[in-house]
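Slide 14.
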Amino acid sequence: MSARFLAAGDTAVVVEFGDRIDREVSDRVLSLSARVRAVSIPGVLETVPTYRSLLVHHDPLLTDSASVIAALESLLHAQAAVGADSKLWTIPACYHETHAPDLAEVAQRTQLSVAEVVRQHAETCYHVYMIGFAPGFAYLGDLPQALNLPRRIDPRVKVPAGSIAIAAAMTAIYPVESPGGWHLIGATPLRMFDLRSSHPALLSAGDKVRFEPITPAKFDRIRAAVAADAYDVTYERFAA
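Slide 15: predicted structure.
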């Protein structure tokens, strides 16, 4: 699978690795992103991973697209792989109807029981493909095939922060209140985006996520602890 280089104006370069959403393409995107961060390419400021490409921002006063592309090509042909330091997060999730307005409909449309929808969603380990749409909004794949549904015909004007949703082959957690057309099947009491933190978005591309079902009572207890800054989110480190 070859890479394609495109100039994005005079301040960025796009490296495309394919035309589909899958783990092989994502791994190539994240590997190059890790390599760029591990070395010092003159003028390069930031990398932004997407499903199938990597956006590399650079300072046009210090370098140009041709020089950046040459450096990126050299990294792609390097033999030594660079593993990203990623995290496996355990996210508490309440699937009770009070936090899951679309769960019953999802069960009906997928011809599964509510309990089976919850089981399949919670037992899957998800890969963070990218961050987009809203600050801290992580696109998590890959949702079990049985739960794949198109987006809602009638998007909501306001989706509460912390809502856990599904659409197509993805699941996600709304980090802030925003419009949204995904199916809401649960909620987490965690703060997924916090401007007070040195790293405001809790999740990063390349991370893994597991959901831990909790009761409404535990949801309230955790939410109170989060509000008091007295709750630590559980994660394990791994080499991607």
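Speaker note: The helical segments are 23-38, 65-76, 103-110, 114-122, 216-227.
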